[in-house]
Design goal:
Length: 89
């Protein structure tokens, strides 16, 4: 069974202006990693909006922990704090 992983970025007041560049830097390596591993994908339309959330679609339950670890690593590299939610598909 696969799940969707919803990543919500915690943006502090006054830092909204930096969100766009941080999200772009965050999304690029994550996109390539997901494509290489086949462990999930995200909607380019949603990513292009650069909202303070991103949904990774189709994450297999057995790979969920490793996908979260990769997201946490990339978020830390880009100065983004995040929280997770999952929803079954």
């Amino acid at each position: 069974m696969s799940q969707n992983l919803i990543i919500r970025f915690n943006v502090t007041k006054g830092e909204e202006q930096f969100l766009r560049s941080r999200l772009m830097s965050f999304q690029s390596p994550l996109y390539h990693w997901l494509r290489e591993t086949g462990w999930g994908r995200y909607d380019d339309g949603e990513a292009d909006k650069l909202e303070p959330y991103l949904t990774i679609l189709g994450v297999k339950a057995s790979k969920l922990k490793r996908v979260k670890e990769k997201v946490e690593l990339e978020a830390a590299r880009n100065g983004l704090a995040e929280t997770f939610e999952t929803e079954a598909r």
